[in-house]
Amino acid sequence: MQNGPAVRRRKLGAELRTLRTGAGLTSGEAARLVGWHQSKVSRIETGSSGVKPADLRLLLDAYGVRDGHLRELLLMLAGAEDAGGRHRWWHAYRGVLPPTYRDFISLESQASAMRTLETTVVPGLLQTPEYARAVTRAAVKDLDEDGLDTLVEVRLARQDVLRSDPPLVLSAVLDEAVLRREVGGPGVMARQLERLMEAARLPQVRLQVLPYAAGAHIGLTGPFVIFSFPSTSDLDVVVLDQLTSSLYLERKEDLMAYSEAFSTLQFHALSPEDSLDYIAGIGDGA
After folding, report:
1. CA distances from 190 to 40, 126, 207, 254, 279 (A)
2. Could you give the angle at which helices 145-158 and 129-139 cross, rounded to 10 degrees?
3. Percentage of residues in the chain with pLDDT exceeding 70?
4. pTM higher than 0.90, yes or no?
5. What's the DSSP call for residue 23?
6. CA 80, 85, 86, 89 torsion: positive or negative?
7. Cβ contacts of 255 within 8 Å, gap of 6 or more
8. Rounded-to-integer distance, Cα 234 and Cα 236, Å
9. What is the pLDDT of residue 244?
10. How far apart are CA 5 and CA 24, in angstroms?
11. In terms of pLDDT, which residue wins out, 65 or 286?
């Protein structure tokens, strides 16, 4: 388990090592091509140091990488803007957001797909402003109104990934407790359930409910998120959110275990169509 920045450096370095060997180059030969010392290439490949976007472009050119999607992804992991020139908007909140949250947002903005199990609250990407405010107020103590407004603003800004081109593909399994827990009062919860039904009809969203009747399930150990990235699965990562930090799992065996767990949860959950009816029934007081 590593923190977010370390995971991204390690994954970026591993991908660069694969690209270098695929180009038939040793680390020394690659260093000479771009005018560096071999130790710099080695530090980048092991993840012990980051790489500037300009330096990364030199490496990708030296390795003959022409795949635009792969170049864009690797450049974003190195800290560049995306191809559309959009800035990493969350940097404006550096003084407010803890580093682990900023890094989570960074991964979320770069991912092509996200699978999430939620056992306590509605996923942040699907929260209404009122629900987000109630959850944030309960989770972050001693927060003044300005701070609360800022965190809610960030939560809502994150939802733009579902409207981007192409949008993030979101697959979510919600334990029934998420729908039954009255966050913010009856009115707030009623609007939140309506929002979930609206989102579930979007082509990029697959929403399933795991009802109480499903009994004990593998997700009882806690919520998790799996981020997947375009062009290469080697950059995929599992995120476990904790009270004071987030843990990032990058080993292939961890990714396989959580991917299998999510598939199992989807199998035992209601279908997307039946989930819509179920949410509607809860909203109607069933």
Report:
1. 56, 14, 17, 37, 10
2. 130
3. 91
4. no
5. T
6. positive
7. 226, 236, 237, 238, 249
8. 6
9. 55
10. 29
11. 65
More confident residue, 273 or 53: 273
Structure tokens at 117: 């199990």
Work out the average pLDDT over 143-162.
92
Cβ–Cβ < 8 Å for 283, 187: no
- For position 79, what pLDDT does the model report? 66
Q: Look at the alpha carbons of 101, 153, 111, 260 in this order and tell me if their dihedral is positive or negative.
A: positive
- For residue range 168-204, what is the model confidence (pLDDT) as tens digits? 999 999 999 999 999 999 999 999 999 999 999 999 9
What is the structure's pLDDT at 172?
98
Find out whether 150 and 95 touch, Cβ atoms under 8 Å: no
DSSP letters of 237-278? EEEEE-SS-EEEE--HHHHHHHHHHHHHHHHHSPPHHHHHHH
Q: Are 268 and 216 in contact (CB under 8 A)?
A: no
In the beta sheet, which residues pair with residue 115?
Answer: 171, 226
Q: How far apart are CA 170 and CA 199, in angstroms?
A: 10
